[in-house]
């Protein structure tokens, strides 16, 4: 059987390989823990589902590394090595299934739960192979685990590239997408370099090289992919409902209804109520920046400038809307700073704000 004379790993590279692979597992686990700490207090934010799913991917990857170490360094026979690997494969498949389900729960990739159903079938195939043809599971896992994962990643990246707008280019989203793809290439290349065929051809030095490439790949992927917006962020136009600009006194100087542009009856009442809520929370929190209020299926996203406060009423709290509202306030105050400071109450002066709204939100 391919590679059977190479294991358990011995020789001068045994200790360096053991150290770097345990370090790699520790780093992946640490990244999973840091992500968990980052999102645990933000459970209600849908835009964090990428981070939550990434935790499962990191755990799946690091846990499989533990089984690889025990199989390659401590198992005396090829059969016992395969048994250890297969336990790891099943654990990885289960975590991978939950990972894909988490992605598809909040974002349809191609059909509702299509990849989750495919991965569930592949997981069941892995269980059958474990009990009937254990010698084929090592190669089969490359197809059953990696192909669906790579496909869902590439399709997701393609959709993000397609939907990334010019307004979001200031966050360099496309650069992050391309670097995420590079991270996956590094990860896949490094993982492949540690496989039995490559080690049989080039020796253990290729495994050491592959481990280093995997560490680089996971860091690149973590830095860029985890900070990408979800597809929900890209569909922010469907989530925004109303926009208000108010002075500290509570007077609404500008409003825009996105979903029902003919409704202009309750703008003053609504803006006053929003301002009252904001002032009450400001006294408690002493927060002079952004604030989000969630109530009765609606989200109030606020940003306070030097002279005016902007409020967006939306169906969902999205980072895109926070970012666009901040840009909107900055541009309005830049153009109207002198007028707002000495405003005499004439509302007509604020009519050109409509052009700024069209520039940023349309």
Task: Explain this structure.
The protein is α+β, with helices and mostly antiparallel strands and 362 residues long. It is 64% helix and 9% strand. The protein has a five-stranded antiparallel sheet. A hairpin with a 4-residue loop joins strand 1 and strand 2 (252-257). The longest helix has 29 residues, at 78-106. The N and C termini lie far apart (62 Å). Residues 43-47 have low confidence and may be disordered.
Question: TL;DR?
Answer:
The protein is of the alpha+beta class. It contains twelve helices and five strands.
Task: Note the main attributes of this structure.
single chain; 362 residues; alpha+beta; elongated
Tell me the β content: 5-15%
Mean pLDDT across every amino acid position: 77
Terminus-to-terminus distance: 62 Å
Unreliable stretches (pLDDT < 50, length at least 5) are 43-47
The run of helices and strands is HHHHHHHHHEEHEEEHH
| Relative helix content | 55-70%
Q: Provide the gyration radius in Å.
A: 26 Å
Reported for the largest beta sheet, the result is: 5 strands, antiparallel
Task: Give, in spatial order, the strands making up the sheet with the most strands.
Answer: 2-1-5-4-3
Overall body shape: elongated
Structural class: alpha+beta
Tally of strands: 5
Query: Number of DSSP helices?
Result: 12
């Amino acid at each position: 059987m391919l590679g059977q004379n190479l294991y358990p790993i011995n020789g001068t590279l045994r200790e360096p390989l053991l150290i770097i692979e345990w370090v790699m597992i520790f780093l992946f686990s640490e990244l999973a823990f840091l992500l968990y700490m980052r999102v645990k207090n933000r459970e209600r934010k849908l835009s964090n589902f990428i981070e939550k799913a990434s935790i499962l991917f990191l755990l799946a990857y690091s846990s499989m590394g533990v089984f690889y170490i025990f199989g390659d360094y401590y198992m005396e026979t090829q059969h016992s090595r395969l048994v250890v690997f297969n336990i790891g494969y099943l654990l990885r498949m289960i975590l991978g299934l939950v990972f894909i389900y988490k992605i598809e729960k909040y974002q349809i990739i191609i059909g509702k739960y299509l990849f989750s159903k495919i991965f569930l079938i592949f997981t069941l195939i892995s269980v059958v192979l474990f009990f009937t043809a254990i010698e084929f599971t090592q190669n089969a896992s490359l197809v059953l685990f990696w192909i669906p994962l790579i496909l869902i990643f590439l399709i997701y990246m393609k959709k993000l590239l397609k939907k990334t707008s010019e307004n979001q280019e200031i966050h360099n989203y496309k650069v992050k997408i391309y670097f995420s793809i590079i991270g996956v290439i590094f990860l896949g290349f490094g993982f492949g370099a540690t496989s039995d065929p490559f080690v049989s051809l080039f020796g253990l030095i290729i495994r050491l090289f592959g481990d280093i490439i995997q560490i680089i790949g996971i860091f690149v992927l973590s830095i860029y992919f985890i900070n990408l917006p979800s597809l929900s962020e890209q569909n922010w136009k469907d989530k925004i409902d109303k926009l208000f600009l108010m002075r500290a006194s509570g007077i609404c100087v500008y409003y825009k209804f996105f979903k029902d542009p003919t409704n202009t009856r309750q703008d003053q009442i609504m803006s006053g109520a929003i301002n009252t809520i904001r002032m009450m929370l400001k006294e408690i929190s002493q927060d002079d920046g952004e604030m989000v209020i969630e109530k009765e299926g609606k989200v109030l996203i606020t940003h306070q400038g030097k002279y005016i406060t902007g409020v967006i009423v939306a169906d969902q709290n999205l980072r895109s809307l926070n970012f666009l509202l901040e840009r909107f306030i900055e541009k309005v105050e830049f153009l109207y700073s002198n007028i707002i400071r000495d405003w005499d109450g004439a509302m007509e002066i604020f009519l050109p704000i409509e052009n700024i709204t069209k520039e940023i939100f349309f």
